[in-house]
Design goal:
Blueprint lengths: L3 H20 L14 E4 L3 E8 L14 H9 L4 E6 L7 H13 L5 E5 L2 H5 L4 H18 L4 E4 L15 H17 L7 E3 L2 H11 L13 H18 L1
Parallel strand pairs: 2-3, 2-4, 4-5, 5-6
Antiparallel strand pairs: 1-3
Helix pairs in contact: 2-8, 3-5, 5-6, 7-8
């Protein structure tokens, strides 16, 4: 049997970790995001859809300068883009597959950014469940438009946010790698590509905690800007 003292210490440590997460930072509001399609740019016509979690709506930062808007503007440099954002704060891969996919396929999009994974990392969603949800998203989008191009962001480096105490932060970093390694297996390098936000920007966020908003979890406007070049690089592969 485990000695009572050990049990007491473990319970106390778990309580400390939960209290740290709860009180380390102040809540940041969920932005109000227009769900109406917008058309910008000039050139060949493309329909662009953004799906995902709180990062897709720039929670913690300025939506007008977030990566959803920035990637739409990037595509609009060479195309007439009609774009719409269905991202929802707190969404996991299953939420995107069950709820946002229905909205997205109605537009038969040419390009889709699927920004999901972080909440699956922190909520310990099984790798198999995340895989099944992403496969459902990919197949659903391809059924609506066989020529669709899809960018998967995977999870950002969840070992970076200071909201999480150690050793949970280190474990979240390891789990981020596991989730993202699985996601890369779903890509083909042409029609479905991976944008390695965790690999490319994780070290920057770990070294610069000022890139996090007041909740010590979501990026600031400047933090989201760090992600944008990784996403536009992935778009270059599919455009």
């Amino acid at each position: 049997m485990i000695p009572l003292l050990v049990v007491t210490l473990l319970v106390g440590f778990a309580a400390f970790e939960l209290a740290w997460i709860k009180f380390n930072g102040s809540p940041v509001p969920v932005p109000t995001v227009s769900r109406a399609p917008q058309t910008i740019g000039s050139g060949p016509k493309r329909t662009y859809v953004v799906m995902g979690d709180s990062t897709s709506i720039s929670q913690g930062g300025d939506y007008a300068q977030g990566y959803a808007t920035a990637t739409a503007q990037y595509i609009a440099k060479t195309h007439t883009v009609t774009w719409v954002n269905f991202g929802v704060s707190g969404a996991r891969a299953k939420d995107v597959a069950d709820l946002q996919l229905k909205q997205a396929v109605a537009y038969k999009p040419d390009i889709v950014l699927v920004a999901v994974g972080a909440n699956d990392v922190t909520h310990l969603t099984s790798i198999g469940s995340v895989r099944d949800s992403l496969k459902k998203i990919i197949s659903g989008l391809q059924a609506a438009n066989p020529n669709v191009r899809i960018v998967l962001t995977g999870s950002p480096d969840m070992g970076a946010p200071p909201r999480l105490p150690q050793p949970l932060r280190a474990l979240a970093g390891i789990r981020t790698q596991s989730v993202n390694n699985m996601i890369t297996g779903l890509t083909d390098g042409k029609r479905v590509v991976f944008a390695p936000t965790a690999e490319k920007t994780g070290p920057v966020f770990r070294a610069n905690h000022h890139l996090y908003a007041a909740d010590n979890f979501h990026p600031t406007t400047e933090g989201y800007k760090v992600w944008t070049p990784v996403l536009t690089g992935a778009l270059d592969q599919v455009l």
